Fold this sequence. Notes:
By secondary structure, this protein is α/β, with parallel strands linked by helices. It folds into 2 domains: 106 residues, Rossmann fold (3-Layer(aba) Sandwich); 179 residues, NAD(P)-binding Rossmann-like Domain (Rossmann fold). The protein is built from 9 helices and 12 strands. It has a 7-stranded parallel β-sheet. The chain starts with a strand and ends in a 15-residue tail after the last helix. The site of NADPH dihydro-nicotinamide-adenine-dinucleotide phosphate has 31 residues, from helix 5 and strand 7.
Amino acid sequence: MSFLIIAPGLKVDSWIKQLRALEPRLDLRVWPQVGDPDEIEFALTWNHPPGEFNQYKNLKCIASLGAGVDHILRDPALPASVPVTRVVEASMAQSMSEYILLSVLNYCRHLHAYHKDQSRRKWQPRVPLPAHKIRIGILGLGQLGADAARKLCHLGFQVGGWSRTSRKIPGVSTFAGNEALDNFLSQTNILICLLPLTPATEGILNLTTFAKLPAGAYVINAARGAHLVEKDLLKALETGQISGACLDVFQIEPLPEDHPFWDHPQIVVTPHISSLTYPKAVAPQIVDNYNRVKSGKAPMHVVDIERGY
Ligand code: NDP
Ligand code: OXD
């Protein structure tokens, strides 16, 4: 049973090293050196070329190299009967929570402004926004959102979270479904997007959503670039409805050199690093799934293709 890594543009040396360390006899191939396509039964992938999977007629599992699967499900020619899995890993939730805490505290303690002051040798103290007065709203209460919610609660913030189905997290006010969205937004000073990208969530960070937040709210998007209507954010910043944003993901990545976000004084840009997939941490669950599939068992962490996550 051959294992194919198909991740155009990504360095996969450390994946190969970790996979081989766990399974020395793995018949591992790296796209485009595929060999006989009929031998490929397991594919580990990130941003595969659309239609690619159709030539592997014995494929039994398509494994995302990350937590998100939008890069797989957007393929209109995706074979319908092959299970798609994703990464679920505690270290990814920890890493994302660190990024969220950093961004929230950066905003509340005005660090972004102090960086600018420092470059001008300007001494200008600002009053911090106290955690207990700030209401944070997290879109998405899954592996990542729930962890961030818990950690923000520990710091003393008022935390709310929105999900598709109803969730319970101690100390967090939870909201479920589209009918609860407006109420959730009206109570949110810092809006954090940790949703999967699906037809239902694409473009959710738009002018209509921003208008439902209290004036001057802050936005953090660490999910997918297509959640944000970028021109709407620029408009909302101009009117003051949104006071600033921290963005890790973009419609086009890498963010084009001439993109207005780069120079915007109220936007913090990071290059899709909020939670990286570390091969050493994740290879065991990939190999475990490979072995499950090999012995005829269903893989773990299968996504619902219809639902989109
Ligand atoms: P999960 O699948 O564990 O959680 C998704 C959450 O979103 C769930 O709470 C789900 O609701 C909610 N949700 C989905 N659709 C809707 C909807 N239509 N309305 C309301 N809520 C909805 O995902 P993760 O937490 O593991 O990851 C989230 C995303 O983060 C990934 O899909 C990926 O795109 C992104 N990501 C970004 C990274 C980066 O470096 N920037 C790194 C890793 C992930 P319910 O609980 O009811 O199912
Ligand atoms: C992921 C990501 O989905 O890194 O894991 O974006």
